[in-house]
Specification:
The complex is a heterotrimer. By secondary structure, chain B is mainly α. Chain B is built from 17 helices and 2 strands. Chain B has helices at residues 2-5, 8-23, 27-52, 60-76, 82-104, 109-129, 131-134, 156-179, 181-191, 193-198, 203-229, 239-252, 258-271, 273-276, 282-290, 292-306, 310-317, and strands spanning 147-148, 151-152. Chain B has a two-stranded antiparallel ribbon with strand order 1-2. Chain C has 10 helices and 10 strands. A 6-stranded mixed beta sheet of chain C has the order 6-7-8-3-9-10, sandwiched between helices. Chain C is globular and about 60 Å long. Classes of the chains: A mainly alpha, B mainly alpha, C alpha/beta.
Chain lengths: 290, 323, 256
């Protein structure tokens, strides 16, 4: 029983991370109709910049916040330089440019921070918490708390603030939003910045547990995307649900079947969803007008 | 006369390729050019799939890998003659292309890209975990040289001609296809899938065939690579490699075969720049090599932003005939 | 003879009914116009008639053959061609190449024959080329044959798409707002083209907003408002129909 609980906890831990990444994918997809392949790189940059700011002597909380802000800025810059010039064009070109961009960001990290794995101290030191025979690391609690905070923050942003409503308008009907005076170009930039911040948060939260390295981006991108599409692209709630479900599926597979298959779970889920029901569990998504 | 002028670039390329081993004595350099040929072969396939039909494949290294492992397994563990191994490699990777493309048919462009990515990554896992067949993380070694019947091909020059011979054959098939009805159908898919449907184009059929053919070419490249190097491991068939292959197709440009071949050559030769330019300073060569991946990434971004038709598009715009 | 028979076609999207029980016939050799205020469901109806969408209810038959449930490709091969409101030209191909794609509508993919350079493949190319050239001449745009799709002016783009649709050797052609965005001269050229199509023996169903054009070319008109048919008859009759006039009164006139 405690074994099941342990797997459950591990699944929820990874699930929270995937949820944050899936949110990042969904936010960009909602405002551009395209998939941002560099989402995983934002995750990597969060951790990397956190390590770097920390090494400059900044206290950990400051380093964490600084890393999130810096990554958000990089996300915005990325959009302005590489995505904006494409205009409202072919989503395929957006994905191509984000592929190229992700390579550039990864290489930048390699040149600046080197090829080695880099550590971050846990946000709070201390032994893991024992619950019903299972152990929960303190950092895991941080991950859950931060993810919950992010999700609630987003919900508040989208529903209660004018800014959030503008972003929703842009994602629902870009032309109509522009007519009502929403600066859709700026909204797209903000959505990239927001997605980058979420990715960075995920990266920072998990680095104390797994360490960070320059090429972690691609792998986590695929998992985050699998989670996003499992829930259903375009729907933030679905993204979070997808992330959690994927995390649980992974840990159950690793625990009860074979740990070697853990990484394959996300891939299999991705393919099954795409081939069977691309709109994901919660359906929805954009309809193409003929 | 104008019609014949179209073939000048191809003719020049053919002559240069054919004559190269007679001019280049350095064995290592010859091997480098053979590597170029291997990438050119995959590039021709990707030219069909991406440059003509407009389908993005982010997992093409997987097809190269399937071909490599199939040939390696057949010639080492099963001890089949090389030609059989080569043929099986081509067939298995073609099958892989079929298996990926069939369920992907109704997927919109970017979803197809992600499906191909998932497929590529899944194959990577399979290469690592499939120990009995693939030798796991350590890979397969002792792969014999190509052999046609009793005639073994081990000299650098002969290997070079074998590889480029296959490239030539693939390019010829691709040329035939693209200059006739299928080529137009592929380009129509790229232009407007709705429009293509309204013209009675068999969208499904074209997509699947483009995939199968490009996967087959990639598999042949993999088989030749395995026999050329003698040793393969999963680290050769990664996402990075898929991205690099795609970069060759993107830079080479749409609607062209020569463009991707030339860009495959250029990008591959960058890796071996110190062999190409003997006088090049050590440091410069090392710098170039450490920025390899950056160049690939930058190339994709720059081309997509500023020259979406790639090199071929630029060539067309300056008024030349389509190469 | 009735070429196209539309019976009770309905298309719902969740709670929204875009097409509501529309029925009408199109007779062979005529030009029939589908008019109605914007957003009245005309393009949706076109999609349902040509295999790009499936109606929630109703039936469509072409020369007695049912069309509902068939793919777009099957519909084209049966002899029904269409154009799009948002012209779907192949921009990186010449006008001639665009039309040639249509001319080869009934062929398979041809990969093997092409790869092997079989004589049949070349013969087929020659035929398609001749058909395409002939059609460009019929429509009157042969001077644009070698211009790329993306270089063509708006009016010519539409005409090329029409030529391409005709290249599929249809008996019935459905044109979705071919006059949208055209100036006076271009609209007159379109009108001449429509007459030439009719004289060539092809039946036409056209969605249009340009009333001048509609009155000039149509043999019969069907009026759709909010997804439902509200009137049907010859142009003179429709012009005076109070129901039709009322439906249009709330509409801002977007025609020049």
């Amino acid at each position: 029983m405690s074994e099941l609980l342990q797997f459950f906890i591990a699944g929820l831990k990874n699930g929270a991370i995937y949820a944050l990444l899936a949110l990042g994918f969904t936010i960009v997809y909602a405002s551009t109709g395209a998939i941002n392949f560099a989402q995983g790189e934002f995750f990597m940059l969060g951790g990397m910049l956190g390590v770097w700011f920390s090494s400059l002597g900044l206290p950990l909380p400051v380093a964490v916040v600084a890393a999130i802000v810096a990554t958000a800025a990089i996300g915005a810059a990325f959009e302005l330089l590489a995505v904006r010039p494409l205009g409202a064009g072919d989503p395929l070109r957006v994905i191509m440019v984000t592929i190229g961009g992700s390579v550039i960001l990864r290489q930048l990290a390699l040149h600046l921070f080197g090829p080695d794995e880099l550590p971050l101290p846990p946000f709070t030191e201390g032994a893991s918490i024992k619950v019903l025979g299972a152990a929960i690391e303190r950092q895991t609690v941080w991950i859950w708390a931060l993810t919950l905070l992010a999700v609630l923050g987003l919900a508040f942003l989208y529903r209660k603030t004018a800014f959030g409503k503008a972003m929703r308008a842009t994602s629902l009907q870009r032309d109509a939003a522009r007519l009502v005076g929403v600066d859709t170009g700026r909204m797209v930039t903000y959505s990239f910045a927001l997605a980058a911040a979420l990715g960075a948060l995920a990266g920072l939260a998990v680095t104390p547990l797994t360490q960070t390295v320059f090429d972690v981006g691609a792998g986590i991108s695929v998992k985050g995307f699998a989670a996003a599409i499992l829930g259903g692209l375009g729907n933030p709630v679905a993204a979070v649900a997808g992330g959690i479900v994927l995390g649980l599926l992974e840990s159950m597979t690793a625990g009860y079947l074979n740990p070697l298959y853990k990484d394959a779970v996300a891939l299999v889920v991705l393919l099954i969803v795409l081939f069977v029901k691309p709109s994901g569990i919660f359906g929805g998504g954009r309809r193409e007008k003929v | 006369m104008n019609r014949l002028l179209r073939f000048v670039p191809a003719a020049v390329l053919t002559i240069v390729v054919a004559v190269l081993p007679l001019v280049v004595a350095d064995r290592f350099l010859l091997k480098v050019f053979t590597f170029v040929g291997l990438n050119a072969l995959t590039a021709v396939g990707l030219a069909l799939l991406f440059g003509y039909a407009g389908q993005v494949s982010l997992g093409h290294a997987a097809f190269v890998g399937i071909g490599a492992y199939a040939c390696a397994f057949c010639t080492t563990k099963l001890e089949l003659p090389w030609l059989a191994g080569f043929a099986i490699a081509a067939l298995l990777s073609a099958l892989g292309g079929l298996l990926l493309s069939l369920p992907s048919l109704r997927l919109k462009g970017h979803y197809l890209a992600m499906a191909s990515l998932g497929f590529g990554e899944l194959m990577s896992v399979a290469f690592v975990e499939g120990s009995p067949v693939t030798g796991g993380v350590n890979g397969l070694g002792g792969i014999p040289f190509p052999a046609i019947g009793a005639f073994e091909i081990r000299e650098p020059a002969t290997l070079y001609w074998l590889v480029w011979g296959v490239v030539g054959l693939a390019a010829l098939i691709a040329f035939n296809i693209t200059s006739l009805r299928p080529g137009r159908a592929m380009r129509s898919l790229h232009g407007s899938e709705l429009g293509a449907q309204a013209c009675g184009v068999d969208v499904t059929g074209v997509k699947v065939r483009s995939f199968v053919l490009s996967a087959a070419f990639a598999g042949m490249s993999g088989a030749l690579y395995a026999s050329f190097v003698g040793f393969i491991s999963p680290s050769v068939f990664t996402l990075s490699v898929s991205v690099n292959l795609l970069a060759m197709a993107v830079v080479g440009g749409t609607g062209s075969l020569i463009g991707p071949i030339l860009s495959a050559a250029a990008l591959t030769l960058l890796q071996y720049i110190d062999a190409l330019i003997p006088g090049l300073a050590r440091e410069t060569a090392q710098v170039v090599q450490s920025f390899q991946a950056d160049i690939y990434g930058l190339a994709i971004v720059l081309v997509v932003l500023f020259a979406p038709g790639g090199l071929a598009g630029l060539w067309r715009r300056r008024g030349g005939e389509r190469p | 003879m009735t070429m196209l028979s539309v019976k009770g076609v309905t298309r719902r999207f969740g709670g929204l009914t875009a097409v509501d029980g529309v029925s009408f016939d199109v007779h062979e050799g005529t030009i029939k116009a589908l008019i109605g205020p914007n957003g009245a469901g005309k393009s949706t109806l076109f999609n349902c008639l040509t295999g790009f969408d499936t109606p929630s209810e109703g039936s469509v038959s072409f020369e007695g053959t049912p069309l509902v449930g068939r793919s777009a490709r099957q519909v084209v091969r049966l002899g029904v061609a269409r154009t799009f409101q948002n012209t779907q030209l192949f921009d990186e191909m010449t006008a001639l190449e665009n039309v040639m794609v249509g001319a080869q509508a009934r062929q398979g993919t041809g990969f093997v024959a092409a790869a092997l350079r079989l004589p049949s493949a070349f013969a087929e190319e020659r035929r398609a080329l001749e058909d395409a050239e002939r059609l460009l001449r019929l429509i009157g745009i042969e001077e644009w044959a070698h211009s790329l799709g993306r270089d063509l002016p708006a009016g010519i783009r539409r005409l090329v798409e029409i030529a391409r649709a005709l290249a599929t050797a249809p008996k019935l052609v459905l044109l979705d707002e071919p006059a949208a965005g055209l100036n006076g001269t271009e609209t007159r050229e379109l009108m001449h083209a429509l007459f030439r199509i009719r004289d060539a023996g092809v039946t036409t169903l056209i969605v249009e907003h340009d009333m001048g054009l509609v009155m000039e070319v149509s043999d019969e008109i069907v009026v759709i408002d909010r997804g439902a048919k509200i009137a049907e008859g010859p142009p003179r009759m429709i012009q005076k129909d109070p129901v039709v006039i009322a439906a249009y009164l709330g509409e801002e006139d977007v025609d020049e």
